[in-house]
Amino acid sequence: MYLSVVVPVYNEEENLPLLYEAVTRALAEISRPWELVLVDDGSRDNSPAVLEKLAQADPVHVRAVFLRRNFGQTAAIAAGIDHSTGEVIVLMDADLQNDPLDIPMMLEKVDEGYDVVSGWRHERKDAFLTRTLPSRIANRLISSVTGVHLHDYGCTLKAYRREVITGFRLYGEMHRFIPVYANSVGARLIEVKVNHHPRRFGKAKYGLERTIKVVLDLFTVKFLSSYANKPIYLFGGAGMVLITISAATLLYLFVRRIGWNVSVMNSPLFQMATMIGILGFQSILMGLIAELLARTYHESQHKPTYTVRRVVGGDQPQAEN
Question: What is the pTM of this model?
Fold first, then answer.
């Protein structure tokens, strides 16, 4: 299987037949095999029945996955990836706002050697105040914090090589941060402009509260992408800064005591410097504990601390039985 199109579904019964027709038309010219993986995320309308009908009518191309309850978009995407078989995975929404006709163009970029092709809804057809503006603010914040500069993290329409997205698990609203994870393992990224259409049927499932969740998840993503392998750099660095501040404050109090005969013990700076010093020392100890946990995680699960793009020439090592 070359291509797997993974689509999370939640209460989209009117859009599903149109989505299937649109994807089929868009991929008709592709000479390589493809599949459409539709994941029902505990829909409360007639979406499960529609999905089952589509899968029965076209079992060669359509696979329907039904979750037991509503787990959220990220979990549905993870389930779709787990139940897909394609070398290239394309994610898209079921509301017909993403255009399946953009998929062949994105596949061309993959064939050029890119590992991640991220869609950019440059002419977005959503409400400006409640969706577009918060999204722009979040995109700039994510780009500045992670160092992976994309215009549109929230666009679900993205294409990935399988090997760059199967080495980690997705939680919360983490699906939008997949490019950051992929970049951390050396994936080649490119952003392309894609079409965006107004919603025809159903209602949007997310509002302003989603932006808050994204910002909170950003802390986790930054830590995992920058310090997961060496947490001592974060905790130890913070500890050294705190200890330096504490030492500088105590030195100031000492000089003031010698030069101007001002009491050290009666100054609130002495208590503050002492507490900051203790916090700095504790931070370093936390970094050492985090180092032990990180090494246990990698060694117990035999996870390498590196990723290989490819190997050319020579005899390949044989796995031991």
Answer: 0.79
